[in-house]
Design goal:
Keywords: Peroxisome, Peroxisome biogenesis. Its main location: membrane. This protein is an all-alpha fold. It has a two-stranded antiparallel ribbon with strand order 1-2. A hairpin with a 6-residue loop joins strand 1 and strand 2.
Length: about 260
């Protein structure tokens, strides 16, 4: 990736990390008008960044999160001792004569904080596989797929616009949003030879369709009573589950009030 593209991904990641805090903080300081203003500004900035990545840099299907979180346990640290051992020709592994078990030799043992308990071959294979997955280029998108990804990117803006036109109690913003999401997924389903990250992203978007059961006005009119009844039954009749379901019942009303939890 080029440096400008990396900067766009960084800014997009920052926005996704602070959006809930910005919404709650602005609502507390400036009230509802300030809250909806910051929501529109953040969604507009995210849409612009994503469209630049899609149309200008040909980044393909947008991932969430934009930058893959660093898994420190799976990173291979650089050891000068390992380099010296490999350059001096010393064997880094030992194969048992009777068991054929592969173990690390004492000369190539890393420091205590960076040791792992797998065989060196397994570590190298997993690292090479992860590196190959990370370095796979995005799948090129045709006109139909680019339109579908653009629908997914602009859906939050269209939803906010429909909220402003028809109000928060209307079914039209909910219906518009679900139609856009399903249309985008249907158009992208024709893509073949997706890499692993892109397949994972499309599965994530499909699962997130369940959020429409928790989004108003569907939640207010149909889901709320049934979900609370189910959680109450689990808390009363399944031992140990109440430690999770009772706080969840108390949290749902607060969760419902945060736009970025629901629609972001």
């Amino acid at each position: 990736q080029s440096l400008p593209q990396q900067k766009l991904l960084t800014w997009l990641s920052v926005l996704e990390c602070v959006e809930v805090f910005a919404e709650m903080g602005t609502a507390r300081v400036w009230g509802e008008m300030g809250r909806w203003t910051i929501i529109v500004l953040i969604q507009l900035a995210k849409a612009i960044l994503r469209l630049l990545l899609l149309l200008w840099y040909k980044a393909g299907i947008q991932m969430s999160p934009p930058i893959v979180p660093l898994n420190r346990e799976q990173q291979q640290p650089f050891h000068s001792q390992d380099t010296e051992n490999s350059s001096s020709g010393k064997d880094q592994t030992y194969v048992g004569k009777r068991s054929s078990r592969v173990v690390r030799s004492l000369q190539s043992t890393p420091s205590l904080h960076s040791r792992h308990w797998g065989s060196p071959q397994q570590r190298e294979e997993s690292q090479s596989r992860r590196a190959e997955e990370m370095n796979q280029p995005p799948t090129p998108l045709g006109l139909q797929e680019t339109f579908a990804e653009s629908l997914y990117i602009t859906r939050p803006l269209l939803h906010l616009l429909s909220l402003g036109v028809w109000g928060q109690r209307s079914w039209k913003p909910w219906l518009l949003s679900v139609v856009l999401d399903i249309s985008s997924l249907s158009l992208l389903s024709d893509l073949k030879d997706l890499n692993r990250r892109e397949r994972t992203e499309l599965r994530r978007r499909t699962i997130l369709l369940l959020y429409y059961l928790l989004r108003s006005p569907f939640y207010d009119r149909y889901s709320e009573g049934r979900i609370l009844l189910l959680l109450r039954l689990l808390a009363d009749y399944v031992p140990g589950v109440g430690f999770v379901t009772r706080p969840l019942m108390d949290y749902l009303p607060a969760w419902q009030k945060i736009y970025f939890y629901n629609w972001g």
